[in-house]
Amino acid sequence: MNGIVPLQVRLRAALVLAATLAAAGAAAQTYPTKAIRLMVGYPPGGSGDFLTRIVADEMTKDLGVQVITDNRPGAGATLASDVVAKSAADGYTLLNSTHHAVNKALYKKLAYDPDRDFAAITQVASGPVIICVNNDVPVKNLKELIAYAKANPGKLFSAASGNGSAPHLGAVQFESVAGVHFTTVQFKGGGPAALSLMAGDTQVMFATPPTVMGFIHGGRMRALAVSSRLASAAIPSIPGAEEAGLPGYDYRFAFGLYAPTGTPPPVIRRVFAAAVKGLAKPEVREKIAAQGLDAAPSASPEAFEAQLRAEAPMWERVVRDSGARVE
């Protein structure tokens, strides 16, 4: 046949493709018809859980079906990512996660492909982490913390919420810029880490705002600064790193929604529209701001995908420079 595909074979392939596209289109038109799982790789109490529950609630209102928050903590949020990566690409299992480039750089081997297994939907929110200390630590500001850490090497224990988590990376970047070293203690999420700090088992914590805002307001721990160069508009009462005495330190994190690769584009757009509609509501933005974060939905799924590609080298560099690695 000299390499020429027979007409019958080409026609059969075209019919199969047409049928597949028609089925996907029909599914998208009726979507959703049942409950949706929105998975997050962190336990209750942190920013990932807080944002997931807000988005799930708003999507429930718009989509007309229950969107259920499914917490799957462990292994730096890779357990939740793996479940979603291997789920049916039908829009009924979604993920709220930080940038996948972090775990790609952090873990020597993953059970899923961070570059190919996820379809971007929208960014949800972004913000800095808060640098906190136990009330008994004899420092009142960031300059004093740095001086105390240098004068007492190895004596300050830092409560971290998991390898590769936003607070963990914020902490190691801080150590690099400030020229100090903390003894890091890893916990399974921000909630347990915060309890450790308040109990005095650890002395320093880099925390996502929702994890600790209530404890700070209640006087159960002391906030010294946020990790961004300037103060956050959401929490103006806490100084930015530059004002607090550490120029050159500027760190923010973000969460976004993902679906398994292969999810029909109309389904992606339907989820996008529901999430963005909720994030645009003044009362929702106020709830997010009250927890020290900024609602930051993307202009489109394509814009979010482009943002992720542009930011990937930066996150890989942050992990590499931190020296963090999980075998």
- Which superfamily, in CATH terms, is the homologous superfamily of the largest domain? Bordetella uptake gene, domain 1
Identify the CATH architecture of the largest domain. Answer: 3-Layer(aba) Sandwich
Structural class: alpha/beta
Question: How many structural domains are formed by the residues?
Answer: 2
Per CATH, what is the topology of the largest domain? D-Maltodextrin-Binding Protein, domain 2
Task: Count helical runs.
Answer: 12
Task: Report the mean per-residue pLDDT as an integer.
Answer: 89
Order of helices and strands: HEHEHEHEEHEHEHEHEHEHHEH
Uncertain residue ranges: none
The total count of strands amounts to 11
Largest sheet: 6 strands, mixed
Percent range of helical residues: 40-55%
Structural shape: globular
Strand order of the largest sheet: 2-1-3-10-4-11
User: What's the gyration radius in Å?
Assistant: 22 Å
CATH class of the largest domain: Alpha Beta
Written overview of the protein:
By secondary structure, the chain is an alpha/beta fold. It folds into 2 domains: 31-127 and 253-322, D-Maltodextrin-Binding Protein, domain 2, CATH 3.40.190.150; 130-244, D-Maltodextrin-Binding Protein, domain 2, CATH 3.40.190.10. Helix content is 45%, strand content 17%. It has helices at residues 7-30, 47-63, 78-85, 100-106, 142-151, 166-178, 190-199, 209-217, 241-244, 265-279, 282-290, 301-322, and strands at 36-40, 67-71, 93-97, 118-127, 130-133, 157-160, 183-186, 204-207, 222-226, 253-260, 294-295. It is globular. The relative contact order is 0.19.
